[in-house]
Amino acid sequence: MKKIAIQGIQGSNHYIVAQNYFGATSQLQECLSFDALVDSVVSESSDYGIMAIENTIAGSIIPNYALIDQHHLTITGEYYLNIHHHLMALENQKTEDIKEVYSHPMALLQCKEFFKNHPTIKLIEDVDTAEVAKRISENQLENIAAIAPKIAADLFGLVVLEDEIQTIKNNATRFVIVQKKVSEAIETKVNKASLKFELDHQRGSLAAMLNVMSDCQLNLTKIQSLPKIETPWKYAFFVDVTFDDYQNFAKAKAIIEIMALEFKILGEYKNGRDE
Predict the structure, then answer these.
(1) CATH number for the domain whose boundaries are 190-268
(2) Closest residue by Cα to residue 65 from 78, 77, 75
(3) Do domains 3-83+171-179 and 190-268 have the same CATH topology?
(4) What global pTM score does this model have?
(5) Which CATH number fits domain 86-162: 3.40.50.720, 3.50.50.60, 3.40.190.10, 3.20.20.70?
(6) d(CA 250, CA 270)
(7) pLDDT, tens digit, 9 for 90 and up, residues 111-149
(8) Whole-angstrom Cα distance, residue 139 to residue 75?
């Protein structure tokens, strides 16, 4: 049985991804932080980890790029999940009864417009969406609500007070599947890759690198710069590319290896948007 580390608990969005990607028979390792999740994978307490990496509203989760890189994890897959936020509380309560709402900072950010219409409700950041729902249920906390996926209300016996309270309804999060030890990717199944490289701080160096990707028929789907802590004002670039022919990607890798000061492949895997 596969052991899967997730950020959060049963009922969270990471839980939903684990169920959809690996199936209901997987054994879950619940972690209340991404650092704990990475530690579980690095120590081999878990076979895989599931990490949110970017959201259509909030953008990149930059610290997770650093965690994957620093701990030499490999991205072996990805999954796109449409995000639905619901306000939930104990039975026999209404939205007007709620004084405080606890949830993950990302969930609170994605529901800002809803709470502008409820200025008396205090918003409080917490470690996980579903964990708050579980706490409300176990401790029978009145006048307290959680923002969480609807499955959390079902699991912990809460009532949904307000459906779909996210500001933008077309809201999705990209999750990556990470491992410590991996077998070599099967070229015929690979059509996406995550790369990291560093360049000389010279005019046109990044443009030249992007031209190589274009010439090799790679489609750039993501570029993110991250500061190098040990060398102020220098940056590493994290890039996602897709391709139709693995040989084009192999050619690009060979050229980038020559051009970059440092080059690292974070993962080669199947594009999750092809599912």
Answers:
(1) 3.30.70.260
(2) 75
(3) no
(4) 0.91
(5) 3.40.190.10
(6) 16
(7) 999 999 999 999 999 989 999 999 999 999 999 999 999
(8) 38
